[in-house]
Amino acid sequence: MARLGNLKYLVLAPFACHSIYTFFMIKDESHQRDLFYILVLPFTLSRMVHYQLWISLSRYRTAKGNNRILDKSIEFDQVDRENNWDDQIILLGLLYYVVYLILEQAHHMPMWRTDGIILTALIHIGPVEFLYYWLHRALHHHFLYSRYHSHHHSSIATEPITAVIHPFGELLAYYTLFSIPLFTTLFTGTASIASFGAYVTYVDFMNLKGHCNFELIPKWMFSIFPPLKYLMNTPSYHSLHHTQFRTNYSLFMPMYDYIYNTMDKSSDTLYEKSLERAAEVPDVVHLTHLTTLESIYHLRLGFASLASKPHASKWYLCLMWPITLWSIMLTCISGHTFVVERNLFKNLKLQTWAIPKYRIQYFMQWQRESINNLIEEAFIEADQKGIKVLSLGLLNQAKQLNRNGEIFIKRYPHLKIKVIDGSSLAVAVVLNSIPKGTSQVVLRGRLSKVASNIALALCEGGIQVVMLDEEDKKRFKAKLTPEVATNLVFSKSYNVSKTWLVGDELSEDEQLNAPKGTLFIPFSQFSPRKARKDCFYFNTPAMIAPKHLENVDSCENWLPRRVMSAWRIAGIVHALEGWNEHECGDMMLDTEKVWKASLEHGFCPLTKISAA
């Protein structure tokens, strides 16, 4: 279905339309409508929701670290490999429709039959679990493993959706196996809508649970009913199968591993160790927030396929408007900072925390106190945990909000944590993005801390800075020495230079007035909207992360893969260097020192430019 892209969902459309038509327009001789046929589509959609809930929960829990089983990182290649997890949901939906249309026994199934549910359970415990165990062992024979099962085992650190990532032939073998209870009840006349739905939901739940990479089964369940250890596995039990390969073959019930002596001897130890594991305490935290209204789906905790690509608007997200509206209402009423991502840089533990507020809310006067309170809570929590550095991302460092974090430093002078707004590195990145030999640049945008220091550095370096707003030029000139101020000029013409340093306030009209071939280099946290196809646009200040930055499986907002914003990198470098000062308010670090330290630690300049 890869060739169809998102159009693959239309495969179900003819059957769904037919089921709706027959339900409302056609009645049989008994004048009864057939519920099973019309419920296939809602059930298919509910399975997708079920999977997505597990994805979000697993990514959140593994980012926090409490009860995490395996520390091995997940990278983009795994995300891309597992991107087609919904194919098997569509396939089962198709099979349900086809079975209904072919088999008369599938028509007018009752909602509930106790004998059918008991029969389904017994067949699963017996034949299904037994046959799966030996099929699974066979798949680990080198002939079948190299041709089929190795694809599934490519993921050592599993995510819930790893459970359904198999070659098509292997997937058909599993479906044949799981269809045994369903067809048995169908041909014995004991099938019901509840037994079909409950069995598939049970298989999904156990499968997703087994690959979630955090332990969630409480010890008291096995204390109350000891035989349960033979009837239900734990996430840590199956995780061992992905690391050891030759043990713990059972599907959901470990009894066959006990019978055939293939249970891993460290299963109980890993289970208890995972249960006792506390939340991870990072060395560095980057504090970000939601951006556009669609950004909740682009978060690492949202849709994995969207999070793994630079943020771009998708038309189908409009269909999610009830969830989007609910999230907006929730963020307006209350909220708490949450962990989005964890990374490892050499021996440095990193986390990204998000303030549950959208960008638009940062410009609402009545929301500012609430936002500042959330940022303040994050400061205090990070300091209490012993975190070394907190870097402020996006608008969490806005001057009108908290003076780049300065108000918290003054309010809590005994804070041990170092607060970094990343301005020095952002300035360094912009300065090093200007083409060599440039003698004149246009500076357009709000004179923020970053913009002011860029202009100062350029003027001191003998590069002429042209401002298109006379009032901005007068205000900034007052801060300069007479000698340096000679390099600051005002112009009414837009054709003075093809190198523009811009903030996100740059309008489309201003872009249209720029000369053809102009290079727009943003200095702000957000990029201006691109309006020219005959001009070139840099990304916002950012650098390419080195290979030893681990567990990178999502993009930072609109930046390309494995590219990090200067503000985020600044906190990492600050901790690596062990610098013992804050960078907030009007305080700036030595830009050259910060730039060299970033390069020494493996971060590379981002030279990629794009047309609109």
Automatic annotation (TrEMBL):
It comes from the Eukaryota. One of its GO terms (cellular component) is membrane. It holds the Pfam family CER1-like_C. Residues 441-605 form the Very-long-chain aldehyde decarbonylase CER1-like C-terminal domain. It is a multi-pass membrane protein. GO terms for molecular function: iron ion binding; oxidoreductase activity. Belongs to the sterol desaturase family. This is Protein CER1-like 1.
